Amino acid sequence: MPVLAQAAVSSSEARIRLLPPGVPNTAAYVTVLNSGEKDITIVGAQSDVAERVELHNHVMDDGMMSMQKQDEIPLPAGSEVRFQPGGYHIMLFDLKAPLSANTPVSIRLLLDNGQSLMFSAKPQKPQSEHHH
């Protein structure tokens, strides 16, 4: 599977939630930019640190916020998609080993054009959502 080299799709601000040992699942966040002239769709994700990796989104359903698996996430030409808390995110299920704050995690996003985008996510403890 070809990896994008100096291509239209790039990533920034990649991070993964560093949770206490024994927590089997976590989420990764990243900003993905499509600076090209063609629309692209993100169709999946992979990582060696988890048994299963899925694309998810938080959606409002009957007044309740719920997490739903996404089969694809559009990435129109000249735009960016932010994977962030409360929105799109990358779920990593059944971690094979506890994450370490000093060890970045490699994640690959699969694109509908047969290419992929590999990025390194820095483990970080979840930030409090409350600002005083």
Textual characterization of the structure:
The chain has 132 residues and is mainly beta. The protein has one domain (9-123): Sandwich (Immunoglobulin-like). The protein has no helices and 10 strands. Strands 1, 2, 3, 4, 5, 6, 7, 8, 9 and 10 form a 10-stranded mixed beta sheet that branches. A hairpin with a 2-residue loop joins strand 4 and strand 5 (64-69). It is globular and about 45 Å long.
Overall pLDDT confidence: 90
The CATH architecture would be Sandwich
Taking the alpha carbons of the first and last residues, their distance comes to 47 Å
Strand portion, in percent? over 45%
Return the CATH topology.
Immunoglobulin-like
Please state the CA-atom Rg, rounded to the nearest Å: 15 Å
Query: What is the level 1 CATH name?
Result: Mainly Beta
- Backbone shape: globular
Q: What is the fourth-level CATH superfamily? A: PCu(A)C copper chaperone
Unreliable spans: none
Query: Structural class of the helices, strands and pairings?
Result: mainly beta
Q: What order do the SSEs take from the amino end to the carboxyl end, as H and E?
A: EEEEEEEEEE
Task: Give the beta-strand count.
Answer: 10
Q: How would a crystallographer describe the biggest sheet?
A: 10 strands, mixed
* Domains, number: 1
The number of helical runs is: 0
Question: Helical amount among residues, as a percent range?
Answer: under 10%
Protein name: Copper chaperone PCu(A)C
Organism: Saliniradius amylolyticus
InterPro entries: LpqE-like, Lxx211020-like, PCuAC_sf
Give me the secondary-structure topology.
Elements: E1 9-17, E2 26-34, E3 40-46, E4 50-61, E5 64-69, E6 73-75, E7 79-83, E8 89-95, E9 105-111, E10 116-124
Parallel strand pairs: 1-10
Antiparallel strand pairs: 1-2, 2-7, 2-8, 3-6, 3-9, 4-5, 4-8, 9-10
